[in-house]
Amino acid sequence: MKRIEAIKNIVEELEKELVICNLGFPSRELYSVGDRPENFYMLGSMGLASSIGLGLSLSVNKRVVVMDGDGSILMNLGSLVTIANWSPKNLTLIIFDNKSYGSTGGQPSYTAGKTDLAALARAAGIKRVFVAESPQKLREAYRKSKKGLTVIIAKVEKGNADVPIIEMHPQDIKNRFENAVKK
Predict the structure, then answer these.
(1) DSSP structural state of residue 76
(2) Residue-wise pLDDT tens digits, 106-126
(3) Of 22, 51, 81, 85, which residue is the least packed, with the fewest Cβ within 10 Å?
(4) Nearest alpha-carbon partner for 42 in 65, 26, 56
(5) Domains in the chain, ordered, with CATH?
């Protein structure tokens, strides 16, 4: 499945969840298929979507969904350990694993080799870990994620969708998202 297809399937399941989306093409793809005030599009800070999502989930009662990439999570593996130890029941971490750094040129990530993100999440102490290789399995895993802290590894093809850049100023993205959090 293509990443944009995976994102579209998650968007169709969203209600009022707060979404933190990884920088670059994942944010652009989310913006193109389902822009809404509850989405926070990261325009920088590679590797920190999971940490931002954890902090947010600890401070709100709403469900928080993080859409991250394999390259970004590999840059901040400590976030998995921290997430496991805090174990917020309202956090779903979706890692799009395309075995590459898609937003920086498509260089292979370590998931193209021996690194197993699901095994890493389990080893960190996260109990609910799903691997989804199809839109149907992704939707099933997402529905199950509403029962507690969950990591979903969404296996996606390498490549980025041909989508436009996000035409909002970063300050506007932040302000709009803050207002959605407060509601």
Answers:
(1) T
(2) 788 999 999 999 999 999 999
(3) 85
(4) 26
(5) 3-182 (3.40.50.970)
